[in-house]
Amino acid sequence: MTGSGADLTARTLAPGDGTGDVLRLDTPVSFWGGVDETGTIVDVHHPQCGERLTGKVVVMASGRGSSSSTAVLAEQIRAGTGPAALVLSECDTILVIGALVATELYGVRMPIVEVSPTDLIDLIELDRREPGPLRVTADPDTLHATLTREGRR
Fold first, then answer.
1. Number of domains present in the structure of the chain
2. Helix, strand, coil proportions of the chain in percent (round to 5)?
3. What is the H or E stretch that residue 24 is in?
4. pTM
5. What is the structure's pLDDT at 68?
6. Is 135 within 8 Å of 111 (Cβ atoms)?
7. Measured between alpha carbons, how far is residue 75 from residues 65, 91, 93, 108, 126 in Å?
8. Is 145 exposed, middle or buried (0-12, 13-18, 19+ CB in 10 A)?
9. Which of 4, 80, 120, 125 has the most CB atoms within 10 Å of its CB?
10. Domain with 88 in it: what CATH number?
11. 6 belongs to a structural domain
12. Do β-strands 144-149 and 8-14 pair in parallel, antiparallel, or remain unpaired?
């Protein structure tokens, strides 16, 4: 992000549109065993144990296995307890498949986008300075995504 209110471009990994407050995770989390059915981090070894992912734009470098995370994330999306969007700096195929399965089986989309490691840091710094809702719009056709501060455009 080049400055206050600027859009950040990203690559669509799973299409959709989601808006929520940013929740930056210090370390990746596994949706299988690390996040419960309410969207709360329950992994006692995770630095943000107790944080709720539901309705948040979750920002983390990558996911953290297991392959069962696909089914857990898909179910959370269906139940409305999943994140509003995921922003990663490294594609996580397991999470992407979970979002795509939720779209196919349940007709519910949750965007997942990939930004550069530098842009991930810029996004985190902007959110520290100016917290507020972030909209993630991930186009399925162009694979182009934008992250925009809500209420700034």
1. 1
2. 25, 30, 45
3. strand 16-24
4. 0.91
5. 86
6. no
7. 16, 20, 17, 10, 31
8. buried
9. 120
10. 3.50.30.10
11. no
12. antiparallel
66: cis peptide before it, omega within 30°? yes
Q: Which domain holds residue 109?
A: 12-149
Contact present, 106 and 77 (Cβ < 8 Å): yes
In a domain, 2, yes or no: no
Q: Specify the amino acid at residue 111.
A: P
- Cα Rg of the chain (Å, integer): 14
The amino acid present at 9, given as its one-letter code, is: T
Name the residue type at position 45: H
Tokens 């949750």 sit at which residue?
110
pLDDT beneath 70: ranges in the chain: 1-6, 151-153
**66 given a catalytic annotation:** yes
DSSP class per residue in 74-140: HHHHHHT-S-SEEEESS--HHHHHHHHHHHHHH-----EEE--HHHHHHHHHHHHHS--EEEEEE-T
